[in-house]
Amino acid sequence: MLSQPERRNIHNENAINVNFRCAAELPAVRSTSSLSNLSSKNATDQQKPPPTPSSDSLASTILPALAIGAVLAIAATSILYIFRQRICRKAETKDQLVSPLKQRKDSGGMALQTSTGNWSSQRPPLNRYESAWSRDTTISQLEPGLAEKAAQEDRWEFPRHRLKVFHILGEGCFGQVWKCEAIDIDGREGPSVVAVKTLKDNAGDKEREDLQQELQVMKTLDPHPNVVRLLGCCTEKEPLFVIMEYASLGKLQSFLRNSRADRQYGNLHGRSDSLTSRELTSFMYQVARGMEYLSCKGIVHRDLAARNVLLTTDRVCKVADFGFARDLASKLVYERKSEGRLPIRWMAPESLYDNIFSAKSDVWSFGVFMWEVVTLGSTPYPGLAAAEVVKKVRDGVRLEKPEHCRREIYNIMFYCWDKSPQERPSFSETVELLEKLLVSETDYIELERFPDHSYYNMVSLSGEKI
User: Fold this and answer.
1) Considering the domain boundaries, does residue 172 fall inside one?
2) Which of 19, 29, 78, 450 is surrounded by the most beta carbons within 10 Å?
């Protein structure tokens, strides 16, 4: 056993060892505590959010960007819309040109088409409207109901697909007339034979305006037995069609000229169906009635001649071709201001020199028309050029009395050629004068004395101008 002093020494040594270990561990604890505090501070610093910019800097940066983006978006949308519209139009145009052929091939319906076997006369040279007859498609074919809507807006509009062409009836410098068949036109069910007037490929704006003017004049007219009647039109797209009643015997001028050969043939073979004096007088009377109606409606024809009068199977005359006509109901006098071809040999002095047209200048033309009828379609002022005709008319020279024409007929002509428009008869007066001749039994045109010589030439004057 240890003594008391020994125990006391051991206890003191243990106390010294414990104190020594505590003193040695103390720096390590402090060091660990410092590292822990530092890492906590760094973690706190990393978790703190970045500083937020002020509202003014946001407004100055974001708003201009948004505005520029909106403008670019609108511009891009507009460009895409326009581009899409153009593509759609091109596609529709292509369909309009291609689909009619397929439609007619599949359906075999009454479409506007031609067959070479139906042509009875020579076809005109290359013409863009010829292709329109054969391959044209209508709005009603592409968009059902649209043609009917157009017809309600204008009672004259007629669907193109209900027209079928037969052959060409005649043509001038810029226009053509076709014989066609129309389905359900003018209130009649089924097919009807009609005449369709249109323009040739070489026609310009002036000729198109004339045809449109003719259409507008005809729309104002009520039915009259001696005026060609409008049945309908196709104006919703090119080409423009004016649909009129069909006169089977064609132009009076051609009919008169052809009757010369018929008359000679009849004289040799005893035929009695050739023209008579009474029929020729009736032609004048009928045209006078038609012109009386037009003048009462305030219409100045400006191109009255035998070539512009049509003849039906029943030999009824109808005043036609209103391309030069003007509606003068408000002022009665028309002053021409545009250039173009003129019917010089049928024109009154005031029309030739002052470009003035009125109902009385039409009366002058009617006198020349009477001379044409009497001479069976001869050219007025035979042997004279256009410039010579103008000079002769100014100097008071008038067409001579034909050898086979009685004075009663020639006097009416001569009254129409008075230098003063006020002294010329009205169309109502010419109707009365001719009616008196018709009721008598006298032959005022002695056709058996008709002179068959070159004096009565038949020259085409369609291009004559001064």
Assistant:
1) yes
2) 450
Name all contacts of 133-137 with Cβ < 8 Å and 24+ positions apart: 133/165, 133/178, 135/97, 135/100, 135/101, 136/100, 136/112, 136/160, 137/96, 137/99, 137/100, 137/103, 137/161
In terms of domains, do 433 and 289 share one?
Answer: yes
Domain of 420: which CATH number? 1.10.510.10
Give Cβ neighbours of residue 393 (< 8 Å, ≥ 6 apart). Answer: 349, 352
Task: Judge if 292 and 439 occupy the same domain.
Answer: yes
- Annotated catalytic residue: which of 136, 201, 205, 303? 303
Are residues 173 and 316 part of one domain?
Answer: no
Residues 352 and 428 in one domain: yes
In angstroms, the CA 124 to CA 133 distance is 13
Share of the chain above pLDDT 70, in %: 63
Cβ neighbours of 419 (radius 10 Å): 14
Asked whether residue 208 falls in the same domain as residue 324, the answer is no
Beta bridge partners of 163: 182
Instruction: Look up the domain containing 391 and give its range.
Output: 250-449
- 53 in any annotated domain: no
Closest to 228 measured CA to CA, from 211, 215, 239:
215
Q: Which residue is it, tokens 């978006």?
A: 73
Distance CA 316, CA 310 (A): 8
What pTM did the predictor assign? 0.67
* Token couple for 398: 């008038």
Contact between residue 318 and residue 226 where contact means Cβ atoms under 8 Å apart: yes
Question: Binding site for ATP: residue ranges?
Answer: 197
- What CATH code is carried by the domain that includes residue 201? 3.30.200.20
Using DSSP's 3-state secondary structure scheme, residue 435 falls into helix
Question: 245, 269, 284 — which closes off a domain?
Answer: 245
Q: Are residues 161 and 218 in the same domain?
A: yes
pLDDT digits (tens, 9 = 90+) for 218-227: 999 999 999 9
- What are 137's two structure tokens? 């498609």
What contacts 455, CB < 8 A, 6 or more positions away?
Answer: 382, 383
Q: Own/partner pairs for 97-100, CB < 8 Å, 24+ apart?
A: 97/135, 99/137, 99/141, 99/142, 100/135, 100/136, 100/137, 100/141
Quick check: is 303 catalytic? yes
The residues with which 145 forms a beta bridge, in sequence order, are: none
Domain assignment present for 33: no
pLDDT at residue 128, as a whole number: 41
Please report whether residue 181 resides in a domain. Answer: yes
| SS3 (DSSP) at 242 | strand
pLDDT band at 177 (very low <50, low <70, confident <90, very high): very high
Which of 221, 245, 269 marks a domain boundary? 245
DSSP-assigned letters across all residues of 297-359 = TTEE-S--SGGGEEE-TT--EEE---SS-EE-TTTSEEE--S-----GGG--HHHHHH-EEEH
Is the same domain home to 386 and 271?
yes
